[in-house]
């Protein structure tokens, strides 16, 4: 019922009188603060004279000090204001004007700073000097006050009145970012803070403090439940972190950290909010994990949208994401202390329930990678891609952290839902149950019994497993579990290889090409997963060999290596590495031709599904799968050793396929993931297998013993020893053909012992009675052993006395074997006898006489050859003539091959002038070549290779008139053949900056000439980029990577020049610098703070200045980068002592200040800007 007009007017007048009382309570802003206590006393007296008509407030204030009396007056005023009816605010205008609302906020600020903060423990909230604007009104610390809980509870009740008031203007005071955090801090101090009362204190006072604590706990939990969960969590995180900043800035005040009890209480409240159900349905949803992620992201440095009502996170600083994700994962995986309080028999169940609730929410985050949004029970705004990626990173980190702490429970809660599909495909010890069938199992093929895993399930499992293994420090539990279930992945890789080799139908070329690309992507993923498992599960060479042999199905070997890992975290020291075998009837088939495609499933993927067939032959036991099996092992060995996959003559240095090169990646970081001895160790174990195959022939030399071929499908399975012999022979032959120097052993003595034992057993078998079936087998084994020995002897060097002496021990047994073969008239081929004789000669001469066998020659692209931008490959030369006519070579230009068409007269004249010893003549010839290239004359078409070699050769000239014109010519050539020219120059730049260890650079005569040549290459590269103009961003990543390598060179001049080139790159790219801003900032920070050379630091400061060449702050530069760059330059300006470096730093700071002022402040008015122009369009 509406109030009558006279009564309503009366209420408005009374309410306005109450509102106006604040003018007497708050000190004036312009008044003097020389006597703050006296000023506060005057305010208290003035307020009580006008507001205390009954005298109750005056009696309460008697005997109180000034600060406490002022706080009681503030509480009295706020309680009166909060009782004003909400109907008064509907009269058309707001009850509080803008000035009154500011005074109201000032009143609440005085109450918080004088009535709450002085009674808080050290580290709880901000110091009073930083919270109160007027430092003169500081109140002395009263944390030892006996009745502080009662006083704080009185303030808290006043704040509760404000929050529950029906006036919007009062509710806003208790919103986040205003006084909500102070309200929560007050309640936490009352509810959980130490009482601090002595035993001699009155019992009644102690009872009152306890009652206040109980009431505060109820109010605190009610407040946290009423607030949006992410807001409550954000306030608790701020309170738990205390007042200590994560980044210590020079010159800042060191603040106290949060006390232990506060961190523990805030952690317990966060844990309760994490598992608190959301909603009032029968099955309420839990979204505590997502809310905590949103709260954490809102506290992390980044860009928050101002237009989104939910405050959508647009970007997060990628440099801080791993550390923040690890901190959040520690919260998720830590068991709260309140779960340990129940009885002992229920502790396990309570812990399981809590961790199950957390894991269920974490598993939902794994679906965010494809969904790109949170799927809550209520409709919420979509989260940004940056926050989605951060949530996925937190999920991965949490899974690893939990599995590290609780191995068995981690397998049950995390690994089983994520990669449990692979458990259906293997046979574990003691598992006699039938294999689990997929939920949507269909059997379209009569040869299939059931479907174990659909294509979607298998692809999802592979994606999750790849991401789990891609973290820098994976959990050992995750690695071991993935290794145990890795045999199906290896079989799938073999099946993909077999299908790709068999798919040769030319009728569907377009579809075949698309399918090949998709299959290649799946193959690369499987190679990356298996290689990661091979390199990270164990550091032992025996462990690596044991894993590969289990994948191949070979028996364990008895080999041992002298150099073993001594790491305490090695998995072999915990338990033996086991890999569960796959089901004998497992088969991987392509997707069904007719199937339902999910919206979230890409229909163009070339996936496979796992089925259980009715056939009784295992996948790897089929004869047609031997070739793909061997090819997969060769590909994997090349994958884990990409550097050694090149020939020794290579001057370059490639990057592993599964590593990303960044500014912080070093050769040591890349080398620790590689397995340089795995190929040699596997090859030695295959020799041992060949040796073991001869043992049963010596023990039971009967006609029935022999190596038999595989049986047909449906017959009795062949013996395991037969499969081992055939697979070892095929794999050893393939490794000899494909891997080359990778299989050279670290311990030649071990290889010599195996070869000597094998040759001795062959000699024993040949010297006895040989049956017809055994003779063929022995000759095949002899051929393979001689081929292996020929491989080793070809790589013997006369200077390596130790190695040649070891292989010289084989001379007696080789001589006896040759004599026995000739004496017993064993049917050996002529090639075998010649090879045996040549091996004896070479071993007797210690490698001085090389074998004259015919072999394929290889031609490698030289460092000064113009090549395509594709990866380096070893190109076999076809139809290489053993004898050919070589024309006279030219000392400066490449030789002209017979049959080449004649040169244009103008081009030929330039080449002739390049032979002249006079510098001006050669410089003029280079100018002529540059002009021809710039005009794209037809005589240069088809001669680019020769012109490039000439120009590249003259870069090493000492005269500037020559090499500057050569740089001009390279820039002109790069304008027409940009990809090939720029790729070649960058590769050569990288090779010279990081020479291959253990080798002398091929074109390096001295250190000075190397440095000069690097500088000339950098100038040529930057000149090409300048000529490209708007196309320069295409080569942004390649050039930055190359210059980053140059910034790590040992010479300061090269490092400074590389940073100067990056500066020029920034000026060229401008807005296109966005994707590489953080990498460039890393370069600036590292060299400006850690480099000992002043010239390099000067170049780094100049690079920082290149960010602010515009009039205003660039839009593409993230705010956190500007902040960090300002801090870095400011700190270095106080530390730097070199005047040249200090000058560049001050110039960068001045440019940053100029851009900031132009962006923040308006330009001052000038006479030119005040001119008014009047233009008449049609005067008549």
TrEMBL record:
Residue ranges of domain RNA polymerase II assembly factor Rtp1 C-terminal in the record: 908-1029
Domain TANGO6 N-terminal positions: 93-272
Matches recorded under Gene3D superfamilies: Leucine-rich Repeat Variant
Leader sequence residues: 1-17
Biological processes, Gene Ontology terms: protein secretion
Sorted UniProt keywords: Membrane, Signal, Transmembrane
SUPFAM superfamilies given in the database record: ARM repeat
Family to which the UniProt record says this protein belongs: Belongs to the Tango6 family.
Annotated protein name in UniProt: Transmembrane and coiled-coil domain-containing protein 7
Taxonomic source organism: Clonorchis sinensis (Chinese liver fluke)
Lineage, highest ranks first: Eukaryota, Metazoa, Spiralia, Lophotrochozoa, Platyhelminthes
